[in-house]
Amino acid sequence: MFSGSYVAIVTPFRNNKVDYKKLEELVEFQVKNGTAGIIPCGTTGESATLNYEEHEKVIETVVKCTDGRVQVIAGTGSNNTAEALELTAFAKKAGVDAVLIVSPYYNKPTQRGLYYHYKKINDSIDIPIVIYNIQSRTAVNIEPETFAKIVKDCKNVVAVKESSGSLEQMTKIKMLCSKLDILSGDDALTLPLMSIGGTGVISVAANIVPKDVSELTGAYLKGNLKKAQELHYKLFPLIKAMFLETNPIPVKTAMGLMKLCSDELRLPMCPMDENNLSKLKKELRDYGLIK
Q1: Distance of CA 86 to the CA centre of its chain
Q2: What is the model's pTM?
Q3: Which residue, 120, 209, 278, 289, is most buried by CB atoms nearer than 10 A?
Q4: Which domains does the chain have, with CATH numbers?
Q5: pLDDT tens-digit series, residues 110-138
Q6: Residue 241 in 3-state DSSP?
């Protein structure tokens, strides 16, 4: 159901307000460069600092702008199950193809709590669900056995954005949940994950080089391993630069330098350290993205 390159799109700001016109331009940039789908209101989209009205309007804007040309998977996760239900219900009404639901953060739920969280959403709203597993942001890893129980009992759970960083965990998930689409949540692991059965990536780097990320996943899916490897090694230094500081600080900064959108962030996200900024500029120059 989900394969190829999906972009975790940034939310552009201007004077601390969402720049919806620029968001539309960024969506067009993605569609024209082969991106399979747009993910609004994820971590890269600074969803944690969007208010409800903004969150909903960003989703509506992306759905309207894509106009069915590519898939839209809206971020609707929360550490509050009731809030996640409200956001998911809105996203379905807005016409998204699926929702991306991060595991509850800060609460540190047990594995049983994680199961009940996804089961409640699955049973309440009939829409494809992509689970987002990222312990570094949420404090709790969704264990492979928990995935198996969720997938068995939740017909709407069809994919996972796996950001554990562990190919061993990803292998176990694939062994236990053979029909589950596994999308990399880490650009650097896209090719390794696809080699063990993953279907693509939800990418940060695609915000600035959508064509290359799309061509990497497309080449592998078509059986052209050599081309996929070449793109993997080409992208690798740039990908590492995207995580010199907390995402989305580097990618938003890069987009400002490339004149794609303003580099404005919302607190507590702040401008890059000068030393890291110099490193980022070097990688962008080496890639040919800035002069």
Answers
A1: 20
A2: 0.96
A3: 209
A4: 4-222 (3.20.20.70)
A5: 999 999 999 999 999 999 999 999 999 99
A6: helix
